[in-house]
């Protein structure tokens, strides 16, 4: 345990000791007529009251100074999905959750993007507390490359009361990472009767594969006797979830019989499996609270999850040099098992003093561990060096750990020169992060450069080519890449918000944050909203933000197998401070810095509401993985090297348009209609990637046109969602139509110079989802179909060398909705 980690209990104790006078004052004021905490609790019951993006206790969604979406459990359930990220993808036009395949560890840790920016630019909170990020970095060429995103799917949906998505920069309010916005997952509270549920679900693809089934539950229990208000002072709520998903396969050749020697017809691509992996998910969450008095309560939650994912690499043909015919006479499909263990816990005290100060002291701990095994594999080099090779390997593990201590205080002040109270808030935060890389077993990374492929020594290759080393599918982590690193950060903020008149509201926030390894940064934000009439208002924000380099970006190191110039080759990712990286032009990483400008309008008339928000986000020194630099490290069997660098300045412009209309159809029930859209465009203003000189004496950019394209064209340029919900007695009908805009696979300038090579544009696609539900007493029965018309993305073209048609892949991994086709499902829920 690091020195900084050992000091965290002392920091927590110091915060609690510092708050003892506040708690004493709160207890003395318990019986007083003026109780700020009770007022806050009453305010929370108001329809539409939000807790994200504001320190005020009575700000509603309609009055928000920044654009915000509020999604209820009914919204999430209507999507038909049993994981949070997929549900949000179907409900929020500014958010995307792509479904790539055969992407190493990213098959188990898929990224979420907001407003077309990196997954690292989204801050995730659970009950207003910072949630930890993942340990695994996305190093593959699709949306979110170079990021270590938060694993949204580590939480059970049955635990969620609502999700608030702040679509605005909020670094001044919440700290690093809140560049594109904030996702705040608010948990269910209390033990009220009728708020408990048990549900089972199941479904499959219309092609007959991809079967899914699962069960979930949520139950609240009161304890501690009966208080003065007739309710128990304490409660605990437990949420559980289990989900099982089987594989899909949409490769050009899904017939494994053709892998037998001599069985593959001429001109037909070899067997592959390209699709969703096999997945088992186990999740549990315990949320609790205890009210000592009307002015003080204890609260917290603990969640733990395990996800087992079995994903594969590309098939090794029987006659390929990376196969061992003695072990696999017909070739083999290497399978990687990713075991993702996730836990997070929060423990805190909050209350209100006699003087009206609302205070909150908390400790937050989170950890994500990513373990990797290789199944049905072989170390080809080991076999031909020593005459044997295991089929199973322990490859290694990555782990990220976070500890956070928070102290937040706020109070409403009545100033003589202002007509309404001013909410003044301030707070401090101490955060410690640890990152660890664990090496695999020796057989998983063994490599002898002297074990050559017979016949590989030629006049053009006088030293020959060695057999591939390391476990096929995922080479083991070598001890030289293993280690542990940590850093601390300290932050302080102030926040003021008020209604300057009956029409004008304003807010200002500032934050100072210091990182041990990345220096210090200031962030500020100014917000305003003016209500011209009871129906129409304008709002605007200006802010600057920052995102510190993540520990994985600073210290991640691995060797993976990828496709380079049409060949499977091993590539090493090195730390920016590694002597190899430094020799190739690497420099220490610095924080990304951003400027956000937003202008919006809202209109409400009766049952109709509409909001339109325009935004511009400029980010300097964006951090990403550079392109592969050809190297020759025969002792490690490494042919390409990469590292993380500050590579580009970008500007993102776009608009969010949200409309809803609620109709009372009298005896025909109720109808809710929504129409929402996001338009988004990112431009690279400056390419700051280093360069190198190749063997021909040409200066080559290490962050080329193809990587720029992943920033600018890998997520949809637009996304529209039209939905309708009709409630008639005990029946509910739901329809959702989503249009995913164009995405493009851009190739490098060097590939573009080859005659016949072209970029590929994948046109927009419309997807229709339908579901019907019937409520019988306390039971609810739902059936549904996603992608009713069985829409697939356009097939890839052979003229794009970045796509993998030669490997039997039919659809681009950039597809924002995947390529599984129609999905049919059912769900039964019992509420009590």
Describe this protein's structure.
The chain is mainly beta and 832 residues long. The chain contains 13 helices and 36 strands. The protein has a 22-stranded antiparallel β-barrel. Strand 17 and strand 18 form a beta hairpin.
Brief rundown of the structure:
The protein has 832 residues and is mainly β. The protein has a 22-stranded antiparallel barrel.
- Specify the overall morphology: globular
Strand content: over 45%
Largest sheet properties? 22 strands, antiparallel, barrel
> Could you estimate the helical fraction of the residues in percent?
10-25%
Continuous helix count: 13
The CA-CA distance between the termini, in Å, is 45 Å
Backbone CA Rg: 28 Å
SS-based class: mainly beta
In the predicted model, the low-confidence regions spanning at least 5 consecutive residues are: 1-47, 562-566
- What is the count of β-strands? 36
Keywords:
22-stranded antiparallel β-barrel; 10% helix; five-stranded mixed β-sheet; mainly beta; disordered N terminus; 832 residues; single chain; 36 strands
């Amino acid at each position: 345990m690091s020195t900084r980690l050992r000091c965290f209990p002392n920091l927590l104790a110091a915060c609690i000791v510092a708050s003892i006078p506040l708690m004493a004052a709160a207890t003395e004021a318990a019986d007083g007529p003026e109780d700020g905490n009770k007022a806050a609790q009453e305010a929370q019951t108001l329809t539409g009251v939000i807790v994200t993006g504001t320190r005020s206790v009575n700000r509603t969604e309609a009055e928000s100074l920044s654009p915000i979406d509020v999604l209820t459990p009914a919204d999430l359930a209507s999507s038909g999905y049993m994981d949070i990220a997929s549900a949000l993808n179907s409900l929020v036009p500014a958010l995307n959750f792509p479904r790539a395949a055969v992407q190493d560890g990213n098959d188990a840790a898929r990224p979420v993007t907001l407003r077309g920016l990196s997954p690292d630019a989204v801050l995730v909170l659970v009950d207003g507390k910072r949630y930890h990020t993942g340990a695994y970095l996305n190093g593959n060429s699709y949306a979110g490359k170079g990021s270590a995103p938060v694993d949204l799917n580590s939480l059970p949906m049955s635990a969620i009361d609502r999700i608030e998505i702040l679509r605005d920069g909020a670094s001044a309010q919440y700290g690093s990472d809140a560049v594109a916005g904030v996702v705040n997952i608010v948990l269910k509270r209390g033990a009220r009767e009728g708020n408990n549920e048990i549900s089972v679900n199941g479904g499959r693809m219309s092609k007959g594969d991809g079967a899914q089934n699962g069960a979930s539950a949520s139950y609240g229990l009161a304890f501690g006797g009966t208080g003065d208000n007739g309710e128990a002072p304490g409660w605990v709520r437990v949420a559980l979830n289990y989900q099982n998903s089987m594989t899909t396969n949409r490769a050009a050749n899904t017939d494994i019989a053709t892998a037998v020697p001599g069985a593959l017809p001429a001109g037909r691509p070899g067997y592959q499996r390209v699709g969703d992996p096999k997945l088992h998910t186990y999740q549990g969450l315990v949320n609790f609270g205890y009210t000592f008095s009307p002015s003080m309560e204890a609260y917290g939650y603990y969640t733990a999850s395990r996800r087992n994912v079995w994903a594969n690499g590309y098939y090794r043909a029987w006659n390929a040099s990376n196969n061992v015919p003695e072990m696999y006479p017909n070739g083999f499909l290497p399978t990687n098992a990713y075991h993702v263990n996730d836990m997070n816990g929060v423990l805190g005290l909050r209350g209100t003093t006699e003087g009206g100060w609302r205070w909150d002291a908390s400790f937050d701990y989170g950890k994500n561990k990513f373990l990797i095994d290789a199944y049905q594999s072989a170390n080809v080099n080991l076999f031909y060096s020593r005459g044997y090779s295991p089929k199973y390997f322990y490859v290694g593990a990555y782990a990220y750990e976070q500890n956070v201590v928070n102290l937040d205080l706020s109070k409403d002040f009545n100033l003589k020169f202002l007509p309404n109270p001013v909410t003044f808030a301030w707070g401090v935060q101490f955060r410690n992060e640890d990152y660890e890389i664990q090496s695999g077993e020796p057989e998983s990374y063994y490599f002898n450069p002297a074990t050559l492929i017979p016949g590989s020594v030629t006049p053009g290759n006088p030293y020959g080519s060695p057999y591939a080393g390391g476990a096929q599918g995922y080479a083991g982590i070598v001890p030289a890449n293993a280690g542990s690193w940590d850093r601390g950060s300290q932050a302080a903020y102030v926040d003021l918000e008020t209604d300057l008149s009956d029409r004008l509201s304003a807010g200002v926030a500032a934050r100072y944050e210091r990182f041990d390894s990345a220096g210090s940064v200031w962030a500020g934000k100014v917000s305003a909203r003016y209500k011209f009439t009871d129906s129409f208002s304008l709002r605007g924000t200006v802010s600057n933000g920052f995102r510190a380099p993540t520990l994985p970006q600073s210290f991640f190191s691995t060797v993976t197998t990828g496709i380079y110039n049409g060949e499977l080759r091993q590539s090493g990712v090195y730390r920016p401070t590694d002597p190899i990286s430094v020799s190739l032009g690497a420099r220490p990483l610095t924080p990304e810095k951003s400027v956000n400008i937003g202008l919006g309008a809202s209109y409400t008339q009766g049952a109709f509401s509409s909001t339109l928000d325009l935004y511009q986000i400029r980010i300097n020194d964006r951090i990403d993985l550079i392109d592969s630099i050809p190297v020759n490290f025969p002792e490690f069997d490494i042919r390409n090297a990469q590292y993380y660098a500050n590579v580009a300045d970008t500007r993102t412009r776009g608009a969010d348009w949200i409309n809803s209309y609620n109709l009372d159809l009298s005896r025909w029930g109720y109808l809710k209609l929504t129409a929402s859209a996001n338009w988004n465009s990112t431009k690279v203003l400056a390419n700051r990637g280093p360069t190198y000189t190749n063997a021909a004496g040409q200066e080559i950019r290490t962050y080329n046109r193809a990587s720029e394209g992943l920033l600018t064209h890998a997520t949809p340029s637009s996304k529209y969602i039209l939905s309708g919900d009709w409630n008639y007695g005990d029946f509910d009908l739901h329809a959702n139509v989503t249009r995913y805009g164009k995405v493009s696979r851009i190739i490098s300038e060097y590939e573009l110079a080859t005659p016949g090579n072209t970029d590929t544009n994948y046109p927009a696609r419309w997807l229709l989802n339908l579901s019907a539900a019937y409520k019988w007493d306390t039971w609810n029965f739902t059936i549904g179909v996603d992608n009713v018309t069985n829409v697939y993305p356009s097939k890839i073209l052979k003229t794009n060398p970045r796509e993998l048609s030669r490997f039997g892949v039919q659809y681009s991994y950039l597809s924002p909705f995947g390529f599984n086709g129609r999905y049919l499902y059912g769900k039964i829920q019992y509420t009590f």
